[in-house]
Amino acid sequence: MEANEGKALTSTVDGVEYERLPIKTRVVMPGDDLHEIVRTYAADAVQDGDVLFVTEKIVAITQGRSMLTHEITPRPLANFLAKYVTKTPHGIGLGMPETMEMALRECGTPRILLASGVAAVTKAFGRSGDFYRVAGEKARAIDGPTKNTIPPYNESVVLGPKDPMRVARDLKILLGNKVDVLIVDINDIGGNILGTTLDRADNDKWVRILSDNPLGQGHQSTPMGVIRKHA
């Protein structure tokens, strides 16, 4: 296992050094079996006591929760709201009608309207992030297309995974219970632990260990990796 370009293999958190070892796979497609992907690429890479971390994106893709942008017809409200989403160089977020449309479907129109209203008020006072705090994890987990992503996901919208806690538990059993499993949403501006077989009180620690996004989010084709405490 080698570090992705511009990334490091190790991270030190609270005085402890951890290895973050990317696992390269083929491109995961809708219709693929997540268990088969993990069995094929991760089973021989993990050791007792490791933590396998899997991106929420491949979990969602194998659950049939990705779609090409041309398959989505945004309603007028989605077109309107998307204009007011702050764009960042790290991803489109809900700043395009297609991703906003999926947020309306996933979270419900009343919640998205409430989140938009709260964000409009608090942004005037210099506060940011309230839209996602009100809209919730389903909205935050929606990934839009980016030009550097592996096709066909450079033209796709991917929703958050269903029941990531159950997915984590199932993968732990699949690997013989010798490792713990995290389902993670990590990008270049932050992260969240969506599913875990560990104590949820430690979620912040795992986010800090992965805070530099060692898997990357472009053409790396490393949708999972191993966290191993340095001997």
Automatic annotation (TrEMBL):
GO molecular function ontology, one term from the record: coenzyme F420-0:L-glutamate ligase activity
Q: Which residues form the Coenzyme F420:L-glutamate ligase-like domain?
A: 23-185
- For this protein, the parts annotated as crossing the membrane are none
Record keywords, A-Z: Ligase
Superkingdom of this protein's organism? Bacteria
Please indicate if the UniProt record lists Ligase as a keyword. yes
Q: Give the protein name, as stated in the record.
A: Coenzyme F420-0:L-glutamate ligase
